[in-house]
Amino acid sequence: MTVHSSVGAVTQVVLLSDAQRENLPSTTPMANHRIPSFMAADLVIQLSCTLKTKPDRGSFGFGTVFTDHMLTIEWSETEGWQAPLIKPFGDLSLHPACSSLHYGIQLFEGLKAYRGDGDRLRLFRPMLNMNRMAAAAKRACLPAFDQSELLECIRRLIEIDQDWVPRSDSASLYIRPTLISTEPTLGVKKPSRALLYVILSQVGSYFDNEAEAISLWADPKYTRAWKGGTGDCKMGGNYGSALFAQYEAVDYGCQQVLWLYGEDHQITEAGTMNIFLHWINEDGEEELATPPLDGLILPGITRQSILELTRKWDEFKVTERFLTMGQLCSALKQQQVKEIFGSGTACVICPIGHVTYQGKSLKIPCQGENSTLTSRIAKELTDIQYGRTVSDWTFLV
Ligand SMILES: Cc1ncc(COP(=O)(O)O)c(C=O)c1O
């Protein structure tokens, strides 16, 4: 085991390179320091004295093994953001009345660092995660921050724990930024204190057998999200409240829930993935369709990338549109469905093989390994993530 000597509180900052700045979407408030924010330039680093033993290759699981360090940044209404701190990974100490525990005033993000070509570490479109996190913070009445400053702090954390990024094409380092209210009182009110923290965890594949198509259970009695709600934010409450239905899906022999909405049983999401239907539509056109961002749908980074990628191919119609179970059932009957798949950071693309709905098991055509579409999308995206294809979607650590 390697032993690091503690260097105490050291301030170390690496500013973004020009290439990395260019990589950011034009909407990024790069130099917008009018947002009262912590600054990466104030980063304080306390290295761990003892480094943990890393698990054997191939035994990563999902989110069970954490790295040596974490990032924490405290905020209070009176003092604003404190200096960001990278310190040894450890427990949090929270007041028992803390309103994130009682009222779920919190949110999180999920992205990955990939070790790829040239042994370089890469993130995939991380500013989109930072921007989604900032939008959720606003909705949760949690404090605003400068997204590019957070990204730079995360980059430093990954750089410090870089040996934890697996040397494997099927594994990566999962990054979990989290923002919680630490308001220590029981009133339901806007937090006067908050904590932003980031932890890192080695991950393998999300599903037990990644190549296999999964089965979904669709029952309109449960709803994941609703108009005017927070389904478009990564807030913990959306996930905790979905668990009961998830276990019912398993009782019915399925792996995930197909979330429906409304009288017409609109298809919204699959488990914690966005959903795509590749079919010949009612007008006889080949179409790749996914539900629109109407407030119910989590605006997935993978979803956005698949839309942008396939629109660029310009080979078939690519649409954000409402889809109902009725439309799916009649398209299946007429053999017009080519494929259905879920998308997300955890799995990239996950083919869907069965849907259980109103007592029937609907078999979804699945092209498997030979599918031109799912395997082509998966290959193009993972080639970018692992650096086999040069892309401005790549952010070098
Ligand atoms: C509900 C939900 N939908 C979709 C996604 C996919 O989003 P992304 O592609 O950004 O991972 C996630 C990811 O966590 C999710 O939680």
Structure characterization notes:
The chain has 397 residues and is of the alpha+beta class. It folds into 2 domains: 2-204, Aminotransferase class 4, branched-chain amino acid transferase, N-terminal domain (D-amino Acid Aminotransferase, Chain A, domain 1, 2-Layer Sandwich), CATH 3.30.470; 214-385, Alpha-Beta Barrel (D-amino Acid Aminotransferase, Chain A, domain 2). It contains 9 helices and 20 strands. The protein has helices spanning 18-22, 99-103, 126-139, 147-160, 236-240, 243-251, 301-313, 325-333, 372-385, and strands at 44-45, 62-66, 69-76, 80-81, 85-88, 106-108, 111-115, 121-124, 172-181, 193-203, 214-218, 256-261, 266-270, 273-280, 286-290, 317-320, 337-344, 348-357, 360-363, 394-396. The strands form 2 sheets. Strands 1, 2, 3, 4, 5, 6, 7, 8, 9, 10 and 20 form an 11-stranded mixed beta sheet that branches. It has a 6-stranded mixed beta barrel with strand order 11-12-13-14-17-18, surrounded by 4 helices. A hairpin with a 5-residue loop joins strand 14 and strand 15 (286-290). Helix 3 packs across helix 4. The two termini are 25 Å apart. Mean pLDDT is 89; it is low at 1-32.
